[in-house]
């Protein structure tokens, strides 16, 4: 009875929409667990975002579960808001990555030289966690299209190229999500990727260089990795030491007109916290407040234009995992404020 | 390496950057306007560097990045760069620079005459390094003098270009308080106090004079133990600091890459030796340097053969010389040096941090100065 009503021509009631949506949800979300009843900000998280790393490895793997931990502990969210992604299938990944790379990657045939450039020794665990992370970004984007806003507790692996990984990035989650969600011609969606990680989103820029439906926008520090830059659709390279006020002005100078001219159907926002002054690798000087204002500004600008936005945590590098995780949770806190203020 | 375009070069640096996240605990890179051949500690947190161009050169006292020095709360220190805290100008090149412990005084030599310049490094009220005096040398050889700071409480400086002209000068009075009696005009590679009254005069020939300033007779030099290297081999040396484990050892390093460890009381004999993994094809002997780690048992650093600094663990060395592999090699200067057709960059100097076991500073001919805290991969669990 209800299924028929979805396809009928009469005006849809709210109930119809809800039920129809539930069925659509189950069919369309790449999720292990969905939360259609919860009215709070959707958070995407998987316990398998982490894997074991060799002792003393510098990548702060522990940060992902800690981000969720602090959001729950500080009562920013409840666990009812947490959606759990499916692992990204090889088919999904092949929208961006070459079959050869995926085959080598999944089956452990990455040579030592290639592994070195990624910063990770190969393991089945690392493959699995990267696939879940990518799945998380895809799910966040799908939810955003339905709900308007969604935030992953991971993501932002923008240094991965179609056939190789680099700089702690093995699969390009933003690219996979953007590619999947632009969909097929002739009704391709337009996706804007706003990458405010302190490092240029070189992989993403390269992947979408010729793709007019995906616009890549990166604000990064010129002197940070990678020195070999790619060409995003819009690159803004800033000087070392830039602080809150100037940084925010820089974002404000570009984002509104980009939204108004490109008119995306979806925004993917990489809210990397490595522009923070305490970041061990980033060369900028943002404060916690600066990051919060930045995230609030980006999300509000997008949401108030009626455009959905999905966020990923992006880069952050510190040996104090808890401090880093709290910093990463800034975007979720800002998103909660946007959710409330915009009556979502 | 051949011609490389800018993008390929950037790739090399990017690769090394990712690698460095694993191989260093800390790494800070600084670019001086002009290269230095000297790095000298003036406190636990400051070093002096100086240019060596033929005419006017800057002397700079640099404060190490605070981020490096903070053990806890690393995040609280925004300063990641070296900071110039004092500066001055020298009329000529600076080839040797020594800080007099317990003072704000430094002594330099220009590498082309035997005299010394004495400097006041400045205090909190001034950021200027000023020249305050000169000390005459004895030699007219046109060679530069080596310098060593005295270890006694009076500010004294030991200096000389050859074994026949070594003087110990009191800086307060300007008078010489000791002259080394030697007829052999053996060019020196270094001078070093091993106690208040005993110093080593290390010659390029490999001879080392052990001199007790209280004794009246002329000291006899100890030649280096015979090695495979032929004639024309030059030597540098370093005595391990009295605070370090295994004190009383001297490491000699030859221009052919042979390293010899001797007991201080028997410099003619060899406790152990090794052939270092270095390129012998260099043209500048002056910058080759070997030094004991002040806070890491049995470790030495060697530089000047190429653009790298190598750390060796000598505990595994045997009496018979064998090829040794470095425990660690700092390649930062090679990777980040100017590219394409320029000459391969050479490391001009290195020093160990006096207390932190694996922290060193190094400088290269392209003006780069690095401070690095390396990870002992052999000790890390896999």
TrEMBL record, chain A:
Gene3D superfamilies: Histone deacetylase domain. Transmembrane segments: none annotated. GO terms for biological process: epigenetic regulation of gene expression. It holds the Pfam family Hist_deacetyl. Residues 57-321 form the Histone deacetylase domain. It comes from the Eukaryota. One of its GO terms (molecular function) is hydrolase activity. Keywords: Hydrolase. SUPFAM superfamilies: Arginase/deacetylase. PANTHER family: HISTONE DEACETYLASE 12, HISTONE DEACETYLASE HDAC1-RELATED. This is Histone deacetylase 12. It comes from Myripristis murdjan (pinecone soldierfish). The gene is hdac12.
From TrEMBL, chain B:
GO terms for biological process: cytoplasmic microtubule organization. WD repeats lie at residues 347-373. GO terms for cellular component: cytosol; spindle pole. Residues 213-233 are annotated as: Disordered. It comes from the Eukaryota. SMART domains: WD40. Keywords: WD repeat. Signal peptide: none annotated. PANTHER family: WD REPEAT-CONTAINING PROTEIN 73 (PTHR46947:SF1). This is WD repeat domain 73. It comes from Myripristis murdjan (pinecone soldierfish).
């Amino acid at each position: 009875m209800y299924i028929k009503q979805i396809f009928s021509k009469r005006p849809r009631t709210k109930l119809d929409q809800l039920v129809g949506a539930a069925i659509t949800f189950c069919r369309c979300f790449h999720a292990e667990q969905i939360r259609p009843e919860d009215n709070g900000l959707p958070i995407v998280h998987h316990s398998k975002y982490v894997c074991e790393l060799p002792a003393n490895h510098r990548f702060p793997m522990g940060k992902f579960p800690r981000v969720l931990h602090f959001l729950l502990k500080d009562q920013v969210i409840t666990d009812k808001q947490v959606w759990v992604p499916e692992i990204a299938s090889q088919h999904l990944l092949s929208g961006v990555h070459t079959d050869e790379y995926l085959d080598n990657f999944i089956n452990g045939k990455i040579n030592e030289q290639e592994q070195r450039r990624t910063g990770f020794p190969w393991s089945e665990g690392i493959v699995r966690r990267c696939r879940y992370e990518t799945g998380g970004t895809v799910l966040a984007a799908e939810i955003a299209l339905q709900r308007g806003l969604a935030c992953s507790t991971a993501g932002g692996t923008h240094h991965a190229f179609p056939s190789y990984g680099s700089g702690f990035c093995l699969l390009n989650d933003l690219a996979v999500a953007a590619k999947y969600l632009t969909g097929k011609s002739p009704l391709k969606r337009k996706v804007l990727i706003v990458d405010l990680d302190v490092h240029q989103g070189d992989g993403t820029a390269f992947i979408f260089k010729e793709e007019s439906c995906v616009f890549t926008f990166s604000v990064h520090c010129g002197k940070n990795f990678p020195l070999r830059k790619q060409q995003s659709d819009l690159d803004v390279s800033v000087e070392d030491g830039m602080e809150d006020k100037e940084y925010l002005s820089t974002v404000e100078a570009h984002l509104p007109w980009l939204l108004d001219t490109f008119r995306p159907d979806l925004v993917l926002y990489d809210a990397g916290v490595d522009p923070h002054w305490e970041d061990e690798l980033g060369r900028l000087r943002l404060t916690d407040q600066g990051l919060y204002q930045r995230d609030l500004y980006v999300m509000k600008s997008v949401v108030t234009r009626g455009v959905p936005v999905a966020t990923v945590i992006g880069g952050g590098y510190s040996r104090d995992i808890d401090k880093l995780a709290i910093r990463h949770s800034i975007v979720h806190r800002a998103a909660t404020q946007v959710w409330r203020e915009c009556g979502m | 390496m051949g011609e490389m375009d800018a993008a390929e070069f950037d790739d090399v640096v990017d690769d090394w950057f990712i690698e460095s996240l694993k191989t260093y605990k800390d790494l800070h890179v600084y670019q001086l306007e002009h290269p230095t051949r000297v790095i000298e500690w003036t406190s636990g947190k400051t070093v002096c560097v100086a240019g060596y161009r033929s005419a006017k050169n800057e002397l700079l006292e640099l404060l190490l990045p605070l981020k490096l020095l903070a053990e806890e709360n690393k995040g609280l220190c925004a300063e990641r760069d070296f900071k110039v805290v004092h500066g001055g100008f020298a009329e000529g090149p600076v080839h040797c620079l020594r800080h007099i412990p317990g003072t704000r005084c430094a002594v330099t030599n220009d590498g082309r005459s035997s005299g010394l310049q004495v400097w006041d490094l400045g205090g909190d009220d001034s950021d200027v390094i000023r020249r305050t005096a000169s000390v005459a040398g004895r030699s007219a050889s046109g060679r530069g003098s080596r310098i060593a700071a005295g270890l006694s409480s009076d500010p004294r400086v030991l200096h000389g270009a050859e074994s026949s002209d070594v003087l110990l000068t009191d800086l307060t009075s300007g008078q010489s308080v000791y002259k080394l009696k030697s007829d052999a005009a053996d060019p020196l590679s270094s001078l070093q106090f091993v106690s208040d009254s005993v110093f080593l005069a290390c010659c390029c020939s490999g001879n080392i004079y052990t001199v007790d300033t209280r004794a009246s007779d002329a000291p006899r030099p100890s030649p280096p133990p015979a090695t495979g290297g032929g004639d024309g081999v030059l030597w540098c040396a370093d005595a391990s600091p009295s605070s370090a484990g295994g004190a009383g050892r001297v490491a000699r390093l030859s221009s052919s890459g042979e390293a010899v460890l001797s007991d201080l009381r028997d410099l003619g004999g060899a406790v152990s030796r090794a052939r270092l993994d270095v390129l012998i094809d260099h043209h500048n002997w002056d910058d080759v340097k070997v030094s004991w780690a002040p806070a890491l048992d049995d470790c030495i650093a060697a530089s000047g053969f190429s653009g790298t600094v190598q750390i060796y663990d000598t505990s595994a060395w045997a009496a018979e010389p064998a090829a040794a592999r470095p425990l660690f090699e700092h390649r930062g200067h090679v990777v980040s040096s100017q590219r394409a057709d320029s000459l391969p960059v050479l490391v001009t100097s290195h020093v160990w941090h006096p207390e932190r076991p694996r922290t060193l500073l190094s400088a290269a001919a392209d003006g780069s100065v690095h401070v690095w805290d390396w990870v002992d991969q052999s000790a890390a669990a896999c």
